[in-house]
Write a sequence for this structure.
């Protein structure tokens, strides 16, 4: 189970950062962090919670030359 400063995240936690922020930003852990640093700490915690697998952010990648030619 992933853990950040006493917060334990469920196995397989895979929510987008915006949802994570809504869910956890108001906890005492993040409220005690100065606002200038809070966003960065939320991002660190989100990465830990999702094991680096951030959902909801997939998009089209760049096409390679081979793909363009083959189309």
């Amino acid at each position: 189970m992933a853990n950040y400063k006493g917060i334990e995240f469920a196995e397989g936690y895979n929510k987008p950062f915006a949802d994570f922020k809504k869910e956890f930003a108001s906890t005492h852990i993040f409220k005690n962090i100065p606002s200038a640093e809070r966003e960065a700490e939320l991002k660190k915690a989100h990465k830990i919670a999702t094991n680096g697998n951030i959902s909801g952010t997939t998009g089209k990648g760049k096409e390679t030359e081979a793909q363009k030619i083959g189309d």
Remarks:
- Strands lie at 2-4, 7-9.
- Helices lie at 17-24, 28-31, 35-49, 65-70.
